[in-house]
Each structure stands twice: as C-alpha cells, then as structure tokens.
Fold each of these.
Amino acid sequence: MAYTLAGGFLAAVWTDLFQSVLMFAGVMLLLVASLSAVGGLEQATLKSLQNTGPGFVFGPGYSAADSDHQFLPLSLAFSFFVVWIWGGVGAPAGLVRLMASQNTNVIRKSIYVLSVYNLGIYLPLIVICVCGRALLPDLAKSDEIVPRLALLTTANWPGGSLIAGLILAAPFGAVMSTVSSYLVVLSSGIVRDIYQRLLRPQAQRGELRLAAWATMILAGLISVAVMWSPPKFLQVFIVFSTSGAAATFLVPAIMACYWRRATPAGVAAGMISGAAVVLLLYVCGIMGWSPEQKVGATGGFKPWFLLGLEPLIWGLLMSSTSAVLVSLLTKPLAAEHISRLFDRQTGTAGRAI
C-alpha cells in the first residue's frame, strides 16, 4: 500500500515487474530443493500415492466407504480450465496492467513472453505440490505448503535461511503485485467515476489526489480487519473473487474491444447480470438452499455447482446473453464516436496517429 500511495500506477507497474522476476526465481529454487529432498520426481509420486491412497489418481476415485467425498465430475474438471483461463483475463488487476503497454505491438509480443513465463511458473508448482504431499502428508492447512516446504527442504543447505527467505518472498511478491493493481483500480474507480463525475465535478487535482490516498488507506485497513481472523482456506475466497470479477468485467471488456454494436446499456446489463448470477449461486450454496454436494471446498463457503459447473460459467453465459440482447435492443452509438474508437485516425499531415 505504501509504494502504491507514493507512486500510483507507475509504482504498481514497476514493482509488478520486479516481483514477477522474484516469483520466477523463488519457484525455481523451491523446485530444485523439493526434488532434492524427496529423491526425484519418481519417488515424489510414489510417496505421495502411499500417503494419500490411489483414489486420488485412479478411478473410480475415493473409496466408496468414504461417503464425505466423491471423485470430481468431468463438468467440474472442465470448469477449472475456464476459471483458470478466463478468470485471469477478466480480472481488473490484469486488465489495468494493459494500460502500461506502449502500443498494441508490445501487447502482442508480451503474449508470447507471458506464455513462456506462465509455463515456467505453474508446471513446476504442480511438481512442487506433489513433493509437498510426499514430504508433508499430514499438513493441516494446505495454504501453508510453500513456506513449510521452503523451511524444510533448505534446512541443511549452506545459507539455508537466506534461500528460504528468497523462496518465501515469491508468494508475497504475487500477493503484493495483485493487491497494488487492485488498489489502483479501486481508487481510480471511486475517485474518478463516482466522486469526480457525480459528486464533485469541479474538484481540483490536489483534492482528487487526497481522495485517492484516502480510498487506498481505507481499503487497506478494511483488508487487514477482515483477515485478522483468517479463514481455514484462503483459496476459496480467491476463487470467489476471481469468478465474480470475471463474470462482471470479461464480456463487457471483450465487447468494448471488438464489437461496434455494443452500447452502454448492454455493457451495464452484462456486468450486473454476470455478477448477480455468481452471487446468487454462492448464496444458495452458503445458505444450504442447493442440493447436497460432495464436491467443493471443505466448510460452508462454497457455491451451488449447478449441473456440476462452476458459477463463473453460468455468470459468463448470462453476462454475454444479456449484454448482446440489450445492446441490440437499444440505440447504437453515433457513427463518429464508433469510428474514433475502432478506426485508425489520420492527422492533418496524413500521418496515422
């Protein structure tokens, strides 16, 4: 929060770059340390199977005697790929980073760089988690797997404490990177779109800066208060926030980029309907209004997996349907406005701008 307050969007962008490098280095170090400690990938796989049972790998899944669980249905497994891909694309923290690009050519090139980077981050994490199941089979909270593994696997290394610290800095870098972007989105949305546009159109630059700082500080204090008593599994809240944000912003963002017939009313309908569907399915699951489910996170904070699908899928379907229908039923924007957004403009000297 401190560096975002001081430097705003520029600080968030540069620290994102440094934290990404730190995350990559931390994952590589933990991969080497984990495989060395367990004796290689083959031993990690065999020991993890021994510690958990073959039901996690081979069908039909869990033992029939275990009535509290069941093997994940194919529909929910499919949902994971939708959440992973489109959840990240539709997250405001990801969308706002595109504004740091110099031009569209830079964005196109970054697609290839990011593909290689993600491959180097997430495939090793799968191997690391397999090693974690082999080395720490009785870990009560799965959210602690990275720090526990870092401390365990580097204990006998020269400078092990320093290496463990570098590894532990990786997840903190990921958290800080996302939080800084969300602070920028939150403060700009509240200050520019609500405070300046609706309440104080005549507000000066200094007043807007103070309002942005106050918004960031308040958001940080609320986050600290909420996490004072942390949940059992933090990942369930990450999935909830990712699904809700993507269902709200993904379809409107795609429409704004590629569909000339989109209208403000259609975009608003897509945002409201997508968010409403995700919230409704979560409320049904939390309140117990859904049929009994043996899938999902342990505890009460889980949604209703309607037809075995993650709420994000239903949210995207409703968002896209309502956004397209409302756009077609409402008056299109002026042709001059559409041309300014979609067509290449030329200056007085004939040079494209």
Amino acid sequence: MKRNLLIIILNLGLFAFANGQSVLQKRVTVNYEDLSLQAALVDLEQRYHLAFSYSSDLIRLDVPVRAHFQRVALSVVLDAILNGTGIDYAEMNGLILLRDKPVNQKPQLTSRESVGKEKELEAQLEQILAGTPPWKDPNLLVRPILVSTPTSVERLPVEKKLPQPDWALLNEIPFKHGEGPAVLQVSVLPYLGNYMEESDEIAANVSMNLIWGVTGGVYGVEVGTLVNLTLGDMYGVQLSGATNVVTGPVHGVQLSAGANIAEERTKGLQMAGVGNYSRILQGVQISTVLNVVSWRAGGLQVSGVGNIALGHTSSVSQISGLLNVNRGTSGIQTSTLLNVSKDVAVGQIGLINIGREVEGFQLGLINIADTVTGPSIGLLNIVKRGYNRFDISTSEVLWVQSGWALGSPHFYNLIQFGYRGNDGRANASWGLGYGIGTRLFTTKSWLSNVEVFAWHINEEKFWTKEMNWLGQVRLLIEKDKGWFRHLYFGPVFNISASRLNATEAGLNGTKLAPYNLVDRAAKDTSIKAWVGLNAGFRF
C-alpha cells in the first residue's frame, strides 16, 4: 500500500514539474531580412511546431520584420520581430496569442457581415481563460479570428458596432519568458515518460531514455540505451547505444556506438562506431566507417573507410583508411587509396590524389591537378597548368630519344623511348626509360633542370632478359625565349650495370659505352661509368 502511494505521489510530482515548462523558452534559430510578419509566423509554426492565434483584421501582418538569431529563446525572437509593430504577445497552455497593445480606445469597426462573430469570439476567449485551448476542442474549428470589413462606403439601414474582445481579460495573462529547461526528463519509449505527449516540447538539463526517448532540447546530459531523439538544441553531452539524432544545433559532444546525426550544425565532437552526419561541422568527426558533412565543414574528419564534405565553402582536413572527398578546401588529406578535393591548402597523401588548385604538395602513385604551387611527387603526375612537354633528343648512347615530361616545375616525370643503329661496335639496340626532374633556377631567358633517369637497354636481342641497366644524371640548360626556344643541352653522368657478354675471362658488360671512366666487375655484374652529352627540344 505504501509503495503504491509513493508511486502515485511521484507521478503527480513529475506531472506538475512538466507543466512548468513554457513554450516561450524553446530555442529557435531565425534569419529574417525584410520578411513579412505573417511569413515569419508561418515559418516558426512549421519548423518548431508552434501555434499562434490572432485576428488578421485586428493586427497588421504585412509589416516587414528583421531578425537574425541562433539558439535563443522564442521570446527573444518575438520581442525582436514585434518591436515597433504595436503588437503584444502572451502564452497560454502552449498557444501564443497576438494582439494590439492597448494604448487608447481601439477604433470600432462596422460591418453587416460581422454581427454574427460576437458569440464565436466570446466562446474562444472563454475557452482560453478556462484553460482549454481551441485546437483541443473537436467541436470548434481551429482558425484565426477573422473579421470582415466593408469593401465600400454605403449607408446601412441598420448599422451595428462590432464588439471588441475583452482585452482587459487578456491583460491578466502574464506576458513573460519561460523559467528555463526542466531538471529531469525520463522516457521508456517516445511519449511514454514523465512528460508523456509533451516530451517533444520540453527541454531538460538531464534526459534519460531507457529504450528510446524524445525531448525538445538538452542543456546538460542525455543518456539512452538505444536512441536519443532531440527535437531542438543539444548543449552538452549525448550518449547512446545505437543512435543520437538532433534536429537543432549541437554544441558539445555526441557519442554513439552506431551513428550520430545533427540536422543543423555541430560545434564540438561527433564520435561513432559506424558513422557521423552533420549539415555544418565546426569541430571533429571520428568514426570507424563514414563521416559526412552535407554543407560546410571546418575542422577534422577521421574515419576507417571514408570522409565526405559536400559544401563548396568547406575547409577541413581528412584522414581515412580508404578515401576522402571534399568539394571545398582541404587542409591535408591522407588515405590509402583516393583523395579528391576542389582545392588543397597543405597537401594530399594517397595512392591517387586529385585536386584543382593545390597550394601545397601531392604525394602518391598518381597525382592529378589543375594547378600546383608545390611539388607533385609520384610515378605519374598530370598538372593541367604545369610543366608538360613533348621531348625529342639525342645522346651518344641512344641516337634518337622521344617521350614526355609531365608534372610541375617543382617535380615532373619523364617517360622516354630510345633507339640506336648498328655501328659495327654494337648491334642495333633500343631502350625504355623513366625518370624524374626538378627546376634548379630560372632567369630572364634561360632555365635549368636536373634529372635522374633509369633505362632498360635491350642489347644483342629484341628483349634482353639479363640485367642491363643504364642510370643517368642530367644537368640541362634550356633556352626559354627567343630563337631556338625550348632547345636544351647539358652533360650527363652515365653508369651501367650489366650481366651481358660473360666470358671465361669475366664480364664484358654493355658495348654501348663510348669510353670508360670506371670499368670493373662486382661479383657477377659489370659496372661502367662515363660522362656524355644530351641535347634536344621540348615543346
């Protein structure tokens, strides 16, 4: 018996505590610039599930309003948009009443069609003052109080003055802000808790959801075993075993074993076992699978699989195990496979890197960019506005050489094919080469590059299976203006490592060297070195 009595008393206390929350304390975000008052009221009703009651004939709804607020109480927004309009507001049982401020005696309106409105108006006022909102009465149509006015001036045989509302009665309604969020909200399932069907309108300092709960806002801590659904702001910490969902801005930390979802903005940390989503990010997202920001990202995204930032104004760094995608500006992108960014401020590190304007560097197997101010270091570098040249040249080893230089002046790749004929000393030979180069200096008419090259030389037969490598270090001078523009020439240091032409006396190695500065054998490899010359054109 005592136990049952204690439960009844506890429920009554929770019920009384829940009713103390005012709708005027609900946190809202608005951006109104020369918007009509009516449009502003409709926007607030639709986005925050509010109910306004007013007469379109007694207050002006076409006045322009301006308001820019983020995460403030509804009362602050109403004070701003109604300032100077001569309109006052009050809250009664969740209904927000709008009316003219009673300065002088209100003008009397006359209309033949308005005679029948008196009883309907009185009935609505009686219900409001009795504590039963009109929208909860099934017998009463929910609509603003409408009053017809004459469209033309005419003499009426019987003219009756329109009765005005009893504003003295409405003046007894307290026009004040709410008293702040509730201390505790407890739910088992949505709308099954201490605030029942009003739980989505109640902001709480502490919210506890045994399975799945709904609140109107959190200003402290929310803990749930499965799902936390906050239809408003979240300031503080939100913990769940499966999912956290916040329709308003998040300032603080969301932690979940499954997913975190912030429909507006996250300023803080989202950490999830699966994934994170936020429309705007000002902070850090960490997940094992995927992080997504749909509009503007600023801060850091870290994931085991992928990071995606879709906003063109994003400025974020991304670290992932597989891929990063950013339609804005990236600080640094690091992944094992793919990095894609509109612009890059610091650098990209991955197997494949793609960027438009790269102010930093690219390090990967394949690098693609429109413009690079730093180096693109990789096996293949493609820079649209970079150092891209078709090369044709000659040397004492391979008489005809042709290929491409691709990349930027800071770092470019060289891919070449070379051929030489039979000169009596050596049979016809050909080779495939790959190299890298960089710009040393640039003057008004000249520039200088240093290049490192490696060739596989096919000598004595069409394809030489034995090791027959030729390494080169080239120091080239290129004419950059005037006659013979793009003509280049310079000395080349050559070193050959070959296992060809083995005899009983030892290895003879390659026959392509015109002379030798070094000629020795190291185990089963012939090492030869000499200095030659390379000259050609790059277009």
